[in-house]
Design goal:
This protein is an alpha+beta fold and 77 residues long. The chain has a single domain (2-71), classed as Roll (Ubiquitin-like (UB roll)), CATH 3.10.20. It has helices at residues 9-15, 28-38, and strands at residues 2-7, 20-23, 48-51, 54-56, 67-71. Strands 2-1-5-3-4 form a five-stranded mixed sheet. The protein is globular. The termini are far apart.
């Protein structure tokens, strides 16, 4: 299984690779662990995860070819 990983803003600055394909990540909890292990600076940033353009708030199963976006904190006015 493979997913497409996109990152934006300061998250993209840290990861430095966009887009990226990841294999064998079964759910968003595993993805969070992978991100924290490979880019420890992400632990200090509150980011959101979107799966196929839907922001998720709980652990979500990932399917082959899902597009997962790592989104930096939003601010607005």
């Amino acid at each position: 299984m493979e997913i497409n990983l996109l990152s934006f803003g300061q998250v993209a600055d840290i990861i430095g690779k966009d887009p990226m394909k990841l294999a064998d990540v079964k759910n968003t909890s595993e993805l969070n662990r992978y991100l924290a292990k490979n880019w420890p600076m992400l632990r200090s940033i509150k980011y959101s995860i979107a799966v196929n353009k839907k922001i998720i708030h709980e652990d979500t199963l990932l399917q082959h070819e899902d597009t997962v976006a790592i989104l930096p904190p939003f601010s607005g006015g």
